[in-house]
């Protein structure tokens, strides 16, 4: 079966996110990178396209040109799906145009910069036939998929406690210097939206909590930290979560956890057991049961769920990393496109992105109103 | 120099807390267990005393008899310090009598069952010459002492984030059965005070946060979980902490984290680095620094602080456990008694116990008033 | 700059080694898979080529046809390098033809099935301009590269002890059943050469010991295990190593270490420190120094060597896996081809493959002669 | 029941081994330290006795006096068992006298300085009623006991591979300096016997291999390292082990593994599974089974063997250390004395010590004869 033709917006030069998406797209050999707009400077874009071995005619000046010209191509030549890797504020207008012109979309998170924009995209997609993925990258790890399968199968019983942590330290060297913090685009609401820490990493933790548990957060109470009065963006926060009447949780996120790299952890406890996972050691899933030995599940074993095994390409003992996780998401998108099934569970959806935007708004709102409970609506 | 004569209240038969205290008392050979009341049944108490090799005349019917008769002995024979290992509601009356009669006291936590009782003890001790220790056992670990020393010396700079977790799962098999939960003394306010989870383990985490950081919690906001309407005691909770204007923290405690044994962790981040520790692997202290390799400090090395080294008896590579930690606290008490110095920093004090009682009251109060901020006063 | 045109021999259908090489070839976007022979059945080969999106005219019936027709193409269209992923006994004849016709070669290990064949290839390459890599996959991990850099820079001083382990358990369920063991191709000398365990995984450990230490094994003494008299191939073994007069080492390999997955470890000690690494947790390198905290180095930090950093594509905290390791080897080959430099240190060479063949022969010989010392010659 | 009266030879002042034995003896409250000879200088010995709270009359000038005077005491006052903590060369004459006078003996390892002496002790004990323990300390860990129980119960089936490692780095800073190495008593054969590394730590590994597996080493082939010609004692070595026809093993020991503390590991594989343990993390036992999740067993759980549980005093999650391990050995000795059962399996015996001496002799002999196989005889 022919590969899916993929266009890319942004991610040129040495962009890290660019490499991540391209490796992921190539990993299962379901996509063929066909064209795109890699840079606002068209010459740079052309050079980059050449590096990728693309036909010059498929490297466009801008999205509008790309859409127009691709639509003139015969269907079996035309770009089918487009990855949006541009700065956050461009996600919305680009995704909107792509949806309106019948393309499938793979969009980096956060989906948009406001909840309102996310709602509009959601409405457009509902009426379209497009597959729309939001790349919450970490959901593609085989052991996260195993965790999701086990919880769905009742392995840990009724959930009674959900605890997610996402700690980084990268903003510490910037935040204590007035000049540096005011020059950082991540701390500029014009460029990054209303939240830094919750918007950037808190949403990953929020999405993961809902993704693996299969439960929805009903209300939240947030306590954020800005450290300096002149800093307009949160750089640390704790959010109390209520999933159901007696199912409580807590989400902790920080960018001032000095020395932490990308310490994202998930702990979920039910009345029959617990499951724990750490992003920095993604190939280990810990199953806790009363009066039994701790079990450490690792990828690739026959006793794992099909959903998990589908995401592992080599036998046990061959470590997988972040590329594999993103590769699994791209594979999920490819299958959805080929099977024409909109919601498969194998990739994070526009709906997940919308929930994320709602979470950001409610969290900042709870904090600013004095740490009060606020209901999640979407 | 002669050993300190130690009396013990409770802890007879196969009491676990009894073994822990006796091993700790013997460990540094500073104490000699001399007498006590090990059981309300005097015959059982006598049998137990025999097992310990005690003189029958020093095994008493009750505390009153013990105090009266010991005071009749010459000073160089008399019991000098007494460990209180009885059920919680007896801590207060026993400690009060002991203080009023000039004995040093080593009391299990929680110090009392109400904040009011704790305040009274505090006032009595302030006027006495007695040393009074509350056995927050985990503070005696060499790597906790190292953590405290490093923070005090500025190794991680100004603290900006404090995160403590204490997760257990032991109450899960009881809580979902109406008969079992109503028959558990831990869930009976008459016997355990107003809080189960926060009172039993949350206070350990609270004490540790203040102990290692050298900072005081100023206010708290708590969200507790009782799971069932007929259950009067919290079994899980998250508490937002405010240490200073911009120093925030979070304390998480649970007894329904199914499958967890005694998963108590401390993570503290400053503007110059971070420090992390886990009780179940107590011989490892993790030092995180920007753009440096992660450092794993282990006990017994010459580069550690004197305070840490004092608590390690063997060369590096010989694992220490919970007995060693309690042994260090007993040693700290012994030194305080011998040196006649009331507050040395080497053992948790009555003041720490009082803070703990205050924390329990404020936490329950915050939760019951709808998860609002409440100031710590003591 | 244009991508290098890559041909592939074998690795079709769901071959695991096929996926590993293709992902690696694509990872840094230096290669373009252009053609090959993926299956002895030409129809299957054509189908597979279609799956990869290849031009049918570049999917050949056999190697001879491929060489002939590719050489008729203009130089800027012609396949430049070829990956050999076929069964072991085909490595030699294929590599020979490719070298003789001016192609660069990337060959799976073991290089050949006999030492004699390896020597012939070595002589041919010496006279050619071809780059020749043997894919000792694990040498491409960033932390292995860091280990190599640190040892070369004297970080651990003069080496005095080298210890490598490669334990797997996969042959246990086969070996104890006479029918199963006689039906396994890995245990058939016709198909696998003279050694199973040492040939398959012992050579990895041997190569790694020499690669990271920069030292050469001078002589060996081996004790192998065959478990059953009718089993002609070793499935476990320990090899004493002598690197220099007083530099001793030991290599342990097993395929009957039941339950082990791919437990390959490297421990090297010098007079100034030690370095340790485990393949199943490849992103951690442990540096041991006397009277210093244990240091755990992780990929992507600025303080690492350039050689290590070149192999890491994302910031710290984004785990890398086996694909990344192989990707780095392919990248090393690409740079060598582009720069026309034969031996760069950035990929394992034909010489390494030759050493590996020699090691296999000497090891089996030492064992069969009664566990005596034998000199390595090549 | 009355405590067993214990005498101690050596271990005075701040002797580390002294603390270890006293804490262990006190831990289960089965022994009462009654007297001894703590120092060759009688005044120092008396001072130390006072520190322990002993009666001056039980602090003796030398062993002869101690034996003579104790034997004059009534049986219910007399010292029953004696711990020998003196330098190695004194073990033999002291143990001999004690056995000949009817005392039970607890002797530090190595049992003697020559195999011949060990044989003599063995013969004397065979005719006596004395319990004789050799303190291979690490055998007392609860998870080692669990490992032993599981192997005995067939949990991992027939053993096919045994791998033990004991790596330390402490001799590195001494060995490269001619003056330092010649001044170290550990490297003086007069004081330490014929072997340093194998004698000191290799014997631990050897004993452990036999203890947990229940198998006996039949022959060995050793390759030792002395590093310098003027150094008379091995400081590193690898020993090939043969347990039965096809059961092979390997023992690695080093004191020049720079930076290692006390890295003693045991890996045993059978045809039904594998078991692994590390001394520096003694509370974790790893059970490997084909196609099952890795299991991590921890102390104190009801599903563990009685033998393991007997050695754990607190509930799961309360870490145990080296004192607990030695405490369990002392407890085993106490039970043997009380029950008058000579060989209970709960403590290492004189026979184990004898095997250890034999192992040292054969190992050095194998090495000196050119790394040849030598049969173990005792």
TrEMBL record, chains A, B, C, D:
Q: Its Gene Ontology molecular function terms?
A: nucleotide binding
Give all residue intervals belonging to the Gfo/Idh/MocA-like oxidoreductase N-terminal domain.
5-136
Residues in GFO/IDH/MocA-like oxidoreductase domain copies: 144-275
Origin superkingdom:
Bacteria
Per its UniProt record, what Gene3D superfamilies does this chain match?
Answer: Dihydrodipicolinate Reductase, domain 2, NAD(P)-binding Rossmann-like Domain
Matching Pfam families: GFO_IDH_MocA (PF01408), GFO_IDH_MocA_C3 (PF22725)
Q: Under what name is this protein listed?
A: Gfo/Idh/MocA family oxidoreductase
